[in-house]
């Protein structure tokens, strides 16, 4: 399967703001929300360059606010564990493939990550992007049971997301 990044990069490259991070149960009939690891108002940015490099940073702001006065060098082990669980970062080279049914699949080869299990892995996401009413959105459906939704970050708009 050929890498189609060059054909689609103008629509995908940019700074994206995370608007939801949901884990769904796909077993049985209907969809059941299991968790929102970054809270109901997650904070995250994903930068995807035209050259095909991605850097994603997601946090649970509610958890991190509890520790805003705590220096990491002075935090207890319990505090560090809770802070670390509230933070997820990874980056790497992007490839984009088009399935026979037209589905776009984003693959990121992870070069650095806050989760050691991601190092060297390939993070695969089915990608759907749209531009409606001047709002550009991208839905990422990872292989697994959670969804990521982001919108193109544009601080010049009063309500860009």
From TrEMBL:
InterPro entries: Lipocalin-like (IPR024311). It comes from Penicillium cataractarum. Residues 14-137 form the Lipocalin-like domain. It comes from the Eukaryota. This is Lipocalin-like domain-containing protein.
């Amino acid at each position: 399967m050929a890498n189609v990044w060059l054909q689609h990069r103008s629509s995908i490259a940019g700074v994206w703001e995370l608007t939801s991070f949901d884990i769904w149960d796909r077993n049985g009939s209907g969809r059941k929300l299991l968790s929102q690891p970054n809270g109901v108002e997650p904070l995250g940015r994903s930068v995807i360059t035209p050259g095909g490099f991605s850097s994603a940073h997601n946090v649970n702001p509610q958890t991190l606010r509890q520790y805003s006065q705590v220096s990491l060098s002075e935090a207890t082990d319990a505090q560090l564990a809770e802070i670390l669980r509230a933070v997820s970062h990874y980056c790497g080279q992007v490839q984009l493939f088009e399935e026979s049914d037209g589905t776009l699949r984003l693959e990121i080869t992870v070069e650095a990550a806050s989760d050691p299990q991601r190092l060297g892995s390939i993070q695969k996401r089915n990608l759907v992007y749209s531009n409606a009413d001047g709002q550009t959105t991208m839905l990422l459906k990872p292989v697994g049971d959670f969804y990521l939704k982001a919108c193109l970050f544009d601080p010049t708009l009063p309500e860009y997301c």
